[in-house]
DNA sequence: GTTAGGG
DNA sequence: CCCTAAC
């Protein structure tokens, strides 16, 4: 049992529950301060509201409730049962707790507001809380069914290892049990809590493989194992909650018994994803989208890394499916942003010097050896890929042919040439085109030779291989 | 990996 | 400038 563990923080060693709780609080706050912080928002609110419902009226209890934001169930159980609440305050470790948990009060206010809106002051708050989830996850739960399950689980929770309980339902049952025990007798609740404690532990160990079938929970399962040994109750519950939340999202009807689980707040999700990113645990789906986002700016330097292929759209979208609607929007936004930026990132105009360089390169190496030309003549300009050189050459041929054509026809269409090249360059291009006809492209030279415009295509395609220089790339490569 | 061809 | 097929 966990109670045997170093009770340095406990002033009343007789209280087994508090021992475990305190013990768990110590490391938990240090290691998973943020996680605990957010995860505990829910239990706290529940506890507080329960406190109101049952009108315990103990000031110290209320105070304690505000301060102690760990495992709702256990905390409550021993509090009521042993009445050792006062001992918590003033303990050395409480300062740390207060620091960490203090920030929770703000968020708790949120939850309190929600409760007020739902008019939870009645004794049926449990049910209202339960109904809250069916509303949000209508496909998962149906109100009455949940309620019945809740009661069953709570009553069954005395027998640990109840295989009927799903993983997600464990904590739920524990919570409910505590609340019921509060209303009936604290001692029983205490015992129940003990049992729950064991139950959760044992069941979590057993259920870990099952959870692995669910995608995001794989990490959680690991957390389970870790926390089972190292971190006591709080962290354990925390991880358990994590699993539950993920299960709730991914799996549906099979895990209906997760009633007490509140939908994680937006802030929690964000924080969680952030933590996951830093800690290397991809517990949240959003992490991916964030990573994608961060990739965008880094691509601006080199064209070489054309990210379009790197970004498979289908994969992107499928990831979005599993996350919430908000993240879905984000995904869409990101995708739009990326596609808009990726396509035609920078249209670098070809300078005259570059054109001349290209022409020289072609004259030197021939048409088709674009990589060679790029390496030798455009090594400095990383943004010019061999494909770019080829495209440019293609365009040059076209324009030069147009030039020729225009001249032939009386220079009527000169204005169509957006960036007219110097005559010398055009002449060179034409010469090169004659010597190195672009494969399958309509060589201006040939086209001029061939008076019949309709037969240009055929003539060129046939003429290219015939060319004595063998400038056709394919033929060249074969050499 | 490179190139041709089309968009 | 980008994409894809072909090599």
State the helix count. 25
- Shape label: rod-shaped
Query: Ranges with pLDDT <50 over ≥5 residues?
Result: 1-264, 266-341, 407-417, 441-479
Which structural class matches the secondary elements? mainly alpha
Q: Which structural traits does this protein have?
A:
SANT/Myb, Homeodomain-like_sf, mainly alpha, nucleus, disordered N terminus, 3 domains, about 475 residues, Myb_dom, rod-shaped, disordered C terminus, Serum Albumin, Chain A, Domain 1, DNA-binding, single chain
Descriptive report:
With 479 residues, the protein is mainly α. It folds into three domains: 2-272, no CATH class; 285-342, no CATH class; 352-478, Serum Albumin, Chain A, Domain 1, CATH 1.10.246.220. It is 68% helix and 0% strand. The N and C termini lie far apart (80 Å).
List the helices and strands and how they pair.
Blueprint lengths: L15 H16 L1 H7 L1 H14 L4 H9 L4 H11 L2 H4 L3 H11 L1 H14 L7 H12 L6 H14 L10 H18 L1 H27 L4 H13 L3 H18 L15 H14 L6 H13 L14 H10 L2 H18 L9 H14 L4 H8 L8 H24 L13 H13 L8 H6 L6 H11 L6 H6 L1
Helix pairs in contact: 1-2, 1-5, 1-7, 2-15, 3-4, 3-8, 5-11, 5-12, 10-11, 11-12, 11-14, 12-13, 12-14, 13-14, 16-18, 17-18, 19-20, 19-22, 20-21, 21-22
The structure holds a DNA duplex (7 and 7 nucleotides).
Give a brief rundown of this model.
InterPro entries: Homeodomain-like_sf (IPR009057), Myb_dom (IPR017930), SANT/Myb (IPR001005). Keywords: Nucleus. By secondary structure, the protein is an all-alpha fold.
């Amino acid at each position: 049992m966990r109670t045997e563990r170093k009770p340095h923080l406990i002033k009343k060693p007789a209280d087994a529950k508090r021992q475990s709780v305190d013990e768990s609080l110590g490391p938990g706050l240090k290691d998973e301060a943020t996680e605990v912080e957010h995860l505990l928002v829910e239990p706290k609110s529940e506890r507080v509201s329960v406190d109101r419902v049952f009108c315990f009226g103990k000031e110290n209890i209320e105070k304690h409730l505000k301060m102690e934001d760990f495992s709702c169930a256990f905390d409550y159980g021993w509090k009521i049962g042993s009445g050792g609440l006062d001992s918590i305050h003033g303990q050395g470790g409480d300062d740390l707790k207060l620091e960490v948990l203090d920030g929770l009060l703000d968020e708790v206010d949120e939850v309190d507001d929600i409760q007020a809106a739902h008019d939870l002051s009645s004794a049926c708050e449990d049910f209202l809380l339960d109904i809250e989830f069916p509303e949000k996850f209508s496909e998962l739960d149906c109100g009455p069914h949940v309620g019945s399950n809740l009661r069953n689980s709570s009553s069954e929770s005395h027998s640990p290892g109840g295989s009927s309980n799903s993983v997600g339902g464990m904590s739920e049952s524990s919570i409910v049990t505590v609340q019921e025990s509060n209303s009936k007798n604290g001692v029983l609740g205490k015992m129940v809590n003990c049992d729950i404690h064991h139950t959760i532990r044992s069941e979590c160990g057993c259920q870990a493989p099952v959870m692995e079938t669910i995608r995001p929970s794989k990490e959680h399962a690991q957390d389970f194992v870790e926390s089972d040994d190292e971190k006591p109750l709080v962290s354990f519950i925390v991880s358990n909650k994590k699993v539950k939340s993920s299960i709730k999202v991914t799996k549906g009807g099979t895990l209906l018994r997760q009633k007490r689980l509140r939908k994680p707040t937006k802030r929690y999700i964000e924080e969680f994803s952030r933590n996951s990113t830093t800690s290397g645990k991809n517990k949240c789906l959003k992490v991916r989208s964030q990573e994608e986002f961060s990739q965008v700016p880094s691509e601006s330097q080199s064209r070489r890394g054309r990210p379009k292929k790197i970004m498979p759209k289908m994969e992107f979208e499928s990831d979005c499916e599993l996350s919430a609607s908000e993240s879905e929007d984000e995904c869409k936004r990101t995708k739009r942003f990326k596609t808009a930026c990726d396509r035609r990132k920078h249209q670098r105009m070809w300078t005259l010097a570059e054109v001349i360089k290209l022409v020289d390169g072609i004259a030197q190496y021939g048409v088709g050896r674009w990589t060679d030309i790029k390496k030798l003549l455009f090594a400095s300009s990383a943004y010019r890929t061999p494909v770019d050189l080829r495209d440019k050459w293609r365009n040059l041929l076209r324009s030069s042919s147009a030039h020729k054509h225009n001249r032939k026809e009386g220079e009527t269409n000169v204005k169509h040439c957006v960036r007219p090249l110097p005559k010398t360059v055009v002449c060179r291009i034409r010469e090169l085109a004659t010597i190195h006809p672009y494969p399958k492209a309509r060589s201006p030279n040939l086209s001029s030779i061939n008076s019949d415009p309709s037969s240009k295509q055929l003539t060129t395609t046939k003429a290219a291989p015939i060319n004595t220089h063998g400038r056709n790339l394919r033929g060249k490569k074969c050499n």
